[in-house]
Amino acid sequence: xxxxxxxxxxxxxxxxxxxxxxxxxxxxxxxxxxxxxxxxxxxxxxxxxxxxxxxxxxxxxxxxxxxxxxxxxxxxxxxxxxxxxxxxxxxxxxxxxxxxxxxxxxxxxxxxxxxxxxxxxxxxxxxxxxxxxxxxxxxxxxxxxxxxxxxx
Length: 152
Hints:
- By secondary structure, this protein is mainly alpha-helical.
- The chain has helices at residues 8-26, 33-37, 40-69, 78-85, 91-109, 116-125, 127-142; strands at 6-7, 148-149.
- It has a single domain (6-139), classed as Up-down Bundle (Four Helix Bundle (Hemerythrin (Met), subunit A)).
- Helices cover 70% and strands 3% of the residues.
- The longest helix has 30 residues, at 40-69.
C-alpha cells in the first residue's frame, strides 16, 4: 500500500475520543472497590469507556501505519509490533500496547470473564498507560508534519 498522508481530522477525532473516555472513567466512583461494585452500571460504564479508549488508541495506531507508512494490518494485535518495527514505538511501548490489544479482545470476546474487581484495578492503576501511548503516538506524528494531510 502507498502512504496517502495522515488525516489531521482522524488524528484529532481519535485523540479526542481517548481523552473523553478517560475523563468519563475518572468521573466514576473510583474511591474504593466496594463503591465501584455497588452498582453494576458503574462497572458497565467503566468497561465500555475503557474498551472504547483502547479501540480509539489502536485505531490511531492503525491509521498511522496505513495512511502514514503504507503498512496494512488486519488485526489489533499486529499494530504494536508493526509500530515498533517502524520506529514509532519503543519495544517497551509496543509490549504495553500489545497487552492493551489483548485486553480489548478479552473484553469483547470473553466479556463474561471480566470481573468488577479486575476492571476496578485497571481503571484505578493503568489509565496512565493509555495516556503514555497516546502521547508516544502524537509525539511521533508531531515530529513528522510532512506526513499530515490537512485537507478535509
